[in-house]
């Protein structure tokens, strides 16, 4: 009965906090932020031992194929432009990418039922810092598979390990993407709300958001690739519609994770 009561209370909170409406706002800001964020990451590629395809692979694992085609096409068009201009515009792109995180801050504040008392520059500065932190995490996630492969080859050749070990090692390296998601969500749920929280109180939402987002993304991608007729219905806009729906589902998962943490915080009354 406790589980049923918890679900009922969570549904009530979702209705009161207008999770669906907030998720729609997040989907809009995610769409505006996606390409600037990718441009920032791609601008860093010449200084890193990774390729553009390595970067897009992070998204390709979860995004529907029609959306990835749209993303790759737009990235290629922009990269054909003046690369020096892209470098000078990096500050503007980070500012634009922080809009999505700024929307998440507002959603979490509503979940915790707190007002945003931080001034505009403090709140926006935190969003920019979170954006930079996530860029760093994404870069680390890209570097680990690259160097992880080299490390596996070294172990395989130096210690005479079996070829099966190398295959298992190569497969395990891609679990890094799941670890990266956990880290990103922990950062969001800890720093974004205008409320001091204990690390343990944000763990449930972070793990729910990680698992929920992976499952929903893979399920939605499978549905779109095998059953969805968005291209037939919307024509050339089909890729954008699929991307917006994916972002909408992502927003719902993220906000529900925040609601889970907020409910946990209310029950435990953290003091710091």
UniProtKB/TrEMBL annotation:
Cited Pfam families: Virul_fac_BrkB (PF03631)
One GO location term (cellular component)? plasma membrane
The keyword tRNA-binding appears for this protein: no
Localization of this protein: Cell membrane
Keywords attached to this Swiss-Prot or TrEMBL record, sorted alphabetically, are: Cell membrane, Membrane, Transmembrane, Transmembrane helix
Q: Does the keyword Nucleotide-binding apply?
A: no
Transmembrane residue ranges? 21-48, 85-105, 126-148, 168-190, 202-224, 236-258
- What is the protein named? Ribonuclease
Organism, by scientific name, is Peribacillus loiseleuriae
């Amino acid at each position: 009965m406790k589980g049923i009561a918890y679900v009922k209370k969570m549904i009530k909170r979702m209705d009161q906090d207008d999770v669906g409406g907030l998720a729609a706002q997040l989907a809009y800001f995610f769409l505006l932020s996606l390409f600037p964020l990718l441009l920032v990451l791609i601008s860093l590629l010449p200084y890193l031992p990774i390729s553009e395809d390595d970067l897009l692979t992070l998204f390709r694992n979860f995004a529907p194929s029609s959306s990835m085609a749209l993303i790759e096409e737009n990235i290629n068009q922009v990269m054909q432009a003046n690369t020096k201009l892209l470098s000078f515009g990096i500050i503007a792109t980070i500012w634009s990418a922080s809009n999505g995180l700024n929307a998440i801050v507002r959603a979490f504040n509503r979940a915790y039922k707190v007002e945003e008392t931080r001034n505009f520059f403090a709140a926006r500065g935190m969003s920019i810092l979170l954006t930079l932190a996530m860029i760093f995490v994404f870069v680390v996630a890209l570097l680990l598979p690259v160097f992880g492969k080299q490390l596996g080859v070294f172990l395989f050749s130096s210690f005479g390990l079996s070829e099966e070990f190398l295959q298992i090692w190569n497969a395990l390296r891609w679990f890094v993407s799941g670890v990266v998601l956990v880290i990103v969500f922990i950062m969001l749920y800890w720093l974004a709300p205008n409320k001091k929280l204990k690390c343990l109180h944000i763990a449930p939402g972070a793990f729910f958001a990680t698992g929920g987002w992976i499952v929903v993304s893979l399920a939605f991608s499978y549905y779109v690739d095998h059953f969805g007729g968005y291209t037939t219905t919307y024509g050339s806009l089909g890729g954008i519609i699929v991307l917006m729906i994916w972002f909408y589902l992502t927003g719902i998962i993220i906000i529900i994770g925040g609601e889970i943490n907020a409910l946990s915080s209310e029950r435990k009354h953290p003091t710091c």
